[in-house]
Amino acid sequence: MIPAVEIRPLVTASAGTRKRTARVLHVVGAMNRGGTETWLVDLLSRTDRTRFQHDVLTHANGTASLDEAVKATGARLIQAPKASRPWSYSAKLRRVIEEHGPYDVVHAHLHHFSGLVLRSAAHAGVPVRIAHSHSDTRLIDGHAIPARQLYLRLAEHWIRRYATRCLAVSRPAAASLFGEAWESDPRVSVVYCGVALEKFSRLSLNRAACHHGFGIPADARVFAHVGRFAEPKNHAFLIEIFGRIAQLEPNAWFALAGDGLLRPQIEVWVERAGIAHRTLFLGMRNDVPQLLAGLVDVLLLPSLWEGLPITLIESQAAGVPALYSDAITTEAEALPQLLRRVSLRESAGEWAAEAVSMAKSPPVISGRDRLTGSRFDIRACVARLEEIYSTAPRLGSE
């Protein structure tokens, strides 16, 4: 294993004894609504502003749905569309660091592309450089074309060389970006993404009224999915399951919260399954806790791959049963009474029968109370990350 390389900072702290605020730059793709992005906003809104100042650098070419939410936390939003070539990107990122910094920490949330980000940050003199793995992409990475395979190996080399810390949302996510032997590297650790449990503390929704608001019969059972309309979420199989549920449960309705490039194809699948008349396309939502608690009887997540699905944590906090694939790590299981894990090798009919069974006999659990103080409480995540940020060598004095 290539050891991490410490590059001497370009900016050093002046003499003195007063501690100063740590400057943290998060680097993301775009702040469109999703599990990781929502988690990051929750993190930023709970950080200690007397100790940490956060900026968020995005590669979006336009505005994104959570841009204003980022600004509302007090963080600065910096837009710098990704350059087409590595060397031009490095120059652009260094200019951002010089213009808006100096930064004590660069925290990259871009999976393999984090390698180039951290290489650039190292040469810009940033002392703490974090690669954060939010997904397990081994399934697709193993089938990548030769050119992409070369890119992946180079990116992994840069992460090994330039990252001072490596974080992952789960053990599979750690293996995906940092290698199967990640546990032997002292820089690597798993930090679970928590949720803001106070969002679930005041949910006293009238389900009949919620159904009425969506035009759903009061006695309907609602089977739902929350997530991007993208390949990892396995919507083709999901809609097949929905079709089988409709055959087993006359009162079944279906809800899809999210959006993405696959939406036109998913709409076609819904039509072909004969369930369009009782399927809701809810779009991107900023009220997922209320949606889960007030509308959903069973959440289905037949994902092909994941890191740690925030939606599954949220469903447990809302006390909603969830049926999910064996591609999702068992680390997401906090309240097993609410959960059933099913192999993707099982048929859509078997998934459907399990979902209908869960809807008919749901347990009554205060998920929010059970998760308070657990590893899935956002406060635990904030405390762990602030501890890591505080390791920057030039924070001792000002």
Dominant shape: globular
Provide the domain count.
2
Weakly predicted, low-confidence segments: 1-17
- For the biggest β-sheet, the strand order reads 3-2-1-4-5-6-7
- What name goes with the CATH superfamily of the largest domain? Glycogen Phosphorylase B
**CATH architecture type of the largest domain:** 3-Layer(aba) Sandwich
Order of helices and strands: EHEHEHEHEHHEHEHEHEHEHEHEEHHH
Number of strands: 13
| Cα separation of the termini | 36 Å
Describe the protein:
There is one protein chain. This protein is α/β, with parallel strands linked by helices and 398 residues long. The chain folds into 2 domains: 22-194 and 377-395, Glycogen Phosphorylase B (Rossmann fold, 3-Layer(aba) Sandwich), CATH 3.40.50.2000; 202-371, Rossmann fold (3-Layer(aba) Sandwich). Helices cover 37% and strands 16% of the residues. The protein is built from 15 helices and 13 strands. The protein has helices at 35-46, 67-72, 86-100, 114-123, 138-141, 146-162, 171-178, 207-213, 235-248, 263-272, 288-295, 310-317, 348-360, 367-371, 378-389; strands spanning 22-27, 52-58, 76-79, 105-108, 128-133, 165-168, 188-190, 221-226, 252-257, 279-283, 298-301, 322-325, 339-342. It has a 7-stranded parallel β-sheet with strand order 3-2-1-4-5-6-7, with helices on both faces. Strand 8 (221-226), helix 9 (235-248) and strand 9 (252-257) form a beta-alpha-beta unit. The longest helix has 17 residues, at 146-162. The chain starts with 21 loop residues before the first strand and ends in a 9-residue tail after the last helix.
